[in-house]
Amino acid sequence: RTRGVIVTMSEEAVIRKRLAVEGDSGQDDRRLTGLLKTFLKWCAAENLSQEENEATFQKMLFTLEQVEFAFTRSELVVAMNHDEELRYESLVTQVKEEIEVIQLQIKALRDDLTNAREVRQHRQEYDAMATIIQKHPARELTKKNIESLQNKLQDLTRRLTELAEQLSLRRNQGHLLVLAIQQLMDNSDKQSGDNDTSTPMDI
Amino acid sequence: MDSGNLQRFYTFIYDLQFSPCGKYLTACDNFGYISIFSLSKVLDSVSNRNPFCKWQASKSSLYCLASNAKLLFSGGNEGVKGWKWRTIQKETGGNEPLFHFIPPSNQQKEFSDVNGIAVSNENGVLYIASGHVAYSLDIETQQIKETYNGHSDYIHSICTRPDSNQFMTGSEDGTVKIWDSAQTLEAVHTINSERKKSNGKSSQWIGCVTVDSTGEWMVFGGSCSPTMYKLGSMSCATVFDVPQKITTQTAIFTSGRIITGGSESDIRHWGRNGDPISRVPTSLSHVFSIANNSSNSQYEVLAVSGDSSDIDIYTHFGYKAFSLSSY
Question: Is the ipTM of this complex over 0.85?
Fold first, then answer.
């Protein structure tokens, strides 16, 4: 930043300079060219009163101050932009990290969801099987039934053997009886055969 | 109305199938066309609602689709044709099928159309439902391995039980039969659907049979309400509460719920215990097929098709996201 004295500056140089900085926001450019013009006028002017001198001098200083102010402001703006950029970068990295963390959480929750679905499916299958099972009588009851039936079966088989024994016993007794009667009859026939000639009875 | 529009008006899309990689959706219709949609293109932009590839696979209707890792199978009035996924992906379409299998005509000398096909990855076998009879076809040699007789009327739907050599068929005669691939004489188990009406003739028919991924639960439906069975104990778990007039044409297990569709415009979502979750409207008046793209999590959508040339796509179970048009 210099307050360098411009010794010889032609009009063309001014126009060239103006064209070079064209595209800039017009104000600064205008101020600078205005300052340059005023300075040149002031240098070239003769017979200026003290007040006029002072006034023009003050004006030029003022314009210079304005330009310097604009310069500082734009410097600050650049610094601010830079800081913002840094801050946004850090924000970006922070958000990216958070996204990754949350994606991991989402994945974990998804796995939980599939597990929960499986659990629910198993519960429902269990329900369905339970309805089937309900239709059959309880195991205890059937066991008892089976036991009682087996006992009955045992009793009855026992009774069967007993009766069979009795039957064979009676059969033998009956056989003996018949045998005895037959012998008796034979004996009586013999006796009556000796005594008289009566017709033998048929048994 | 010119013939193109007329054909479009009368198009029914009978079956949907997602590719094994999950990037493509296949649809077959009653004019014999197979349309392939690329899911990445469809989900990207609004203007891509048409198939990226479509060809006439058969001169008459195609009723069912199935796929394994390498091949896409289509079944219809002309038997079963197999198409390579590789050639389909190259957008040249399957103009030449890899193989063409015609089921043998039965004793009545009628040619029966193939109503259902199901792939069994354990055996490398394709189960074909043709008329009253089911066949198992070896995919490599294209020879019939076994024939399964037992149904007294034609079979509507067939599906394989995962992790086992069993498959199920649902038929017009109102029974669901569970077969073991080795036993051809008779089904391992037969389930009769409950009578709805108590008149003399049983007018029951089974429209769809499906099994969940564990192979333990089965849902079948048709003129009877959708019924859920537990296969381990062969017992009926629950019957879904659907109005009597509504028939069920399709059902799938997906994401912890069961979705059924049939002769109404809504598809119904049910929990695995039979409780209704919701009824979601579609743009169709009769639903023939529902498919969920569970093999690819990036393009996980639900597709519904029926008596229209449009396919409804659901990215969320509660509402229709958009419709694809196969014309």
Answer: no
